[in-house]
Amino acid sequence: MAADLLSGLNPAQRDAVSAGTGAVLVLAGPGSGKTRVLTHRIAYLIGEMGIPPRGIMAVTFTNKAAAEMRSRAESLLDGHIDGLQIGTFHSICARILRIEADHLPSGYGRDYVIYDSDDQTALMKTVVAEMRIDPKKFSPGRILNGISGAKNELITPAEYASSDYFTEIVKRAYPIYQERLRNNNALDFDDLLMMTVTMLRDDEIVRQKYQRRSEHVLIDEFQDTNTAQYKLIRLLGGYHGNLFAVGDEDQSIYAFRGADYRNVQQFRKDYPEARVILLEQNYRSTQIVLDAARSIIDKNKNRTPKQLFTDKEGGSLVTVHEAYSEGEEGEWVVERVRALMRRQGYSYRDIAVMYRINALSRTLEDAFKATGVPYRIVGGVSFYQRREIRDLVAYLRVINNPIDTISLNRIINTPTRGIGDKTVTTFHDWVAARGRGYLEALEAIANGTLIPVTGRSGKALAEFASLIIDLRKIAFPGDDTPTDLTVLFDELTARIRYVAYLPEISTTPEQVQERLENIQALRGLVSSKKDLRLDDFLADVSLNTEAEPVEESGEQIANSVTLLTLHAAKGLEYPVVFIAGVEDGLLPHSRSFADADEMAEERRLMYVGLTRARDHLFLSYAFRRSLYGESIPSIPSRFLADIPAHLTEGASLKVRHMTEREAYKEATRWDSDTPSRPAQTGRAKIFEFDSRAAASKDRAASLPTPTPGLKYKPGMHVYHPKFGTGIVVDSRRSGSDEEVSVRFEDKQFGLKRLMAEFANMRIIP
Which amino acids are annotated catalytic? Predict the structure, then answer.
């Protein structure tokens, strides 16, 4: 049995599978066969070491991973796995709580229900209403996110400490929310972990029962564990001490979900005698891809170095491409996709296009649609189907054609303005009875001559009607000259205060930022077509929306290029990988510039993206990008400077790396001297850098001079409701908004970059 289980494994894999008792930490590089090691370890424990299946617990993060692990183990052991515990953290905790229901806090029974995110949001809305909190300022989703963070750190309502006004809201809402859950005999997903850890920690009888039963505990994706999950693992393995943790701190990219890669370091401190095994042989990528990826990740501190190697020596050089604009970048990606299929026989399913933020998908989707190349979005919603995009496009449609009642119904109370369903029905019935159409009806209501309802609803309806009529005057000034659509878009978003509305429809600050980026991407699209008539612009949007991919069958998936974010790419692999938007501010994201930990996570994210590629890797950036509504010069990502020149081909990146100030200066010179696109030779010189200097230190961001007329000026003192008082370091225009860099007095926050429109800051005189 042992020989069969170890055959086909490389030396490091054999060491891990056949490791004896005690704590074992397996640091598995990308593509090194960690699932194979885990399943063979389970089979080895049962078949060779004589551990009964019921004495083994394997935990992972997804049902898919758990099912695959179980299937492989069952195959290796010819089905003899009765009693083997394999599941997600949440499913295992739910099972324990069902069995030990008598030990749950008072008010809970064995038949407790588990609330999903929609249930939690609905419950929190009632709590917010009871507390008389303005949901526009403090959305239920944001408060839930604060409570979730506390539960992940095992902080109870009584222990929760506030540090500012928002956390004071969380402190007040937390106990009420928990009480409502208990009244409904309900637990949320965080409760499953927290209550199980609390029970095992505080109840010696229950703890000994599960510790003695759990002879061996195996953990998959260990780098993604949070505080509660790590303590659960330690409690379960506290008697036998046989913990088998498999992970890679270099692939920890979910800090926004509470994952803490430092648990890998903590494991080594808590178990100083643990055996550490490195899986460094890669079975996926070429050596060139691995060397490029290592050049990125080796800059991170607090990690275990790995010498990744493969039998697939050499391989194609990493292609680095500079496009002039984001539109040209999308066209280049599609051209290369088609060339790869013609010349090398790849299928669409062999190719993935990745990006840091969802907003980048728009120009890529447009390029694929324009050429008829099939694609599918993984782990996200297509650009034109995202809520904020549909809302704003619906406004433009009503401005263009008020008879569009589908769009009218969507926006009439978005953002919330006090127009309920009953008022909407009355309005439609009134228009139908008059028989003269919606435009005339809106004009009459806006003028105050006819209003179908009275009271606050009538006032809100009149304000809405005035809004639409005013915006129509901008859209249709009465002459043959088309209105600048950018002016219309900016006036629309300002009048309805849509950016301020984003926290109300978002569950986390990250989702607010993502929605804002999507709005800015839409503004960029509007700006690029600003000379079109409004109806022509909407026709273009409709054609693109109509071409959106629908839910695919297996055959469609087999014939589609995959578009996905780098976060969604974790665990996947493709023969060909494109990463678009490899620019400072996008990858790494601008939020990471002032935070060393966040910058380290951006490096890990880049590393994960590169190591998804088997054979070919393409990295692209745009010389100018209008992602935020203005066409401004982009800076190639500082990560490109880390890749040795001999591993790349394409854009010239060999002599020096320019600062942001130099980029703006050079772009201004080009714009004034050559109104058309600059020549390739000119651009290549701009983005050359000294690889030795880049290897010694990351360049310092040199920001352009602030634009006159901005609200915030360097040296101003400001107050932020979460971060406290601080001083403005810099401010610059970002589309229709203002991006402000503030250094806060509280050292835990330090320097932050904030969008002024929703940061809710006030200037301190």
Answer: 34-35, 220-221, 251, 612
